[in-house]
């Protein structure tokens, strides 16, 4: 009989708990709109296609839209906070100034195998700061989405559009920070990989690249 290995922790369930209700809400709202005969609401343009979720959320389904927007926003920032916690041992709002960067692959390997961290710890403060920036930017973006659901497009169209713009910009920046963090983490983690060259030093490579530029 096939047996699955028990995970080291169950924090990976948090994003599922956050986002399954959100996608369930999207599907439910589209089903409701379809069951009504694909109507064009009074505040919509007559030639508008496709319909936006904000349009459906401005109807009697507005309480569902607000609650699920707040829930998935909370889930997003909690997910990033948990990654920060697993890589550092403390939460983002407990940011410490005395954290030391890892100067060589040997000390990082010792830190990695210490069992103190639930995920590979960050190699330099740049990676830590990128996770923290993603947390802050994502929090602002998700608040904008919550306000977007509160200020419906039917009653507060200009405010609604402004909040959508803030949401898109700050979530884009948050995702960019996460991509940069994972890029740096992968590059530095390669230096302690068993197959890595003993002469590979990511920090010296960065200095050489900067000198060429």
TrEMBL record:
It is found in: Endomembrane system. One of its GO terms (cellular component) is endomembrane system. The chain crosses the membrane at residues 12-36, 64-85, 130-155, 161-184. Its main location: membrane. The keyword GTP-binding does not apply. InterPro entries: CWH43_N, DRAM/TMEM150_Autophagy_Mod. It holds the Pfam family Frag1. It is a multi-pass membrane protein. Keywords: Membrane, Transmembrane, Transmembrane helix. The keyword Glycoprotein does not apply. It comes from the Eukaryota. Residues 11-197 form the CWH43-like N-terminal domain. Coiled coil: none annotated. This is Sfk1p. It comes from Saccharomyces cerevisiae x Saccharomyces kudriavzevii (strain VIN7).
């Amino acid at each position: 009989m096939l047996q699955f290995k028990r995970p080291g922790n169950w924090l990976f369930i948090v994003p599922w708990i956050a986002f399954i209700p959100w996608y369930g809400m999207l599907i439910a709202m589209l089903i409701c709109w379809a069951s009504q005969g694909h109507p064009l609401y009074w505040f919509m343009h007559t030639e508008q296609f496709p319909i936006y979720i904000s349009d459906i959320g401005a109807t009697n389904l507005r309480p569902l839209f607000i609650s699920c927007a707040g829930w998935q926003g909370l889930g997003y920032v909690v997910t990033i906070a948990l990654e920060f916690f697993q890589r550092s041992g403390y939460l983002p709002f407990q940011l410490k100034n005395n954290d030391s960067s890892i100067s060589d692959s040997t000390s990082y390997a010792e830190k990695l195998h210490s069992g103190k961290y639930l995920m590979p710890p960050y190699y330099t403060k740049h990676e830590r700061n990128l996770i923290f920036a993603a947390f802050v930017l994502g929090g602002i973006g998700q608040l904008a989405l919550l306000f977007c659901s509160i200020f419906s497009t039917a009653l507060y169209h200009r405010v609604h559009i402004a909040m959508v713009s803030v949401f898109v910009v700050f979530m884009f920046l948050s995702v960019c920070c996460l991509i940069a963090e994972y890029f740096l983490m992968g590059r530095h983690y390669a230096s302690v990989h068993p197959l890595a060259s003993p002469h590979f030093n990511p920090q010296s490579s960065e200095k050489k690249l900067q000198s060429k530029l």
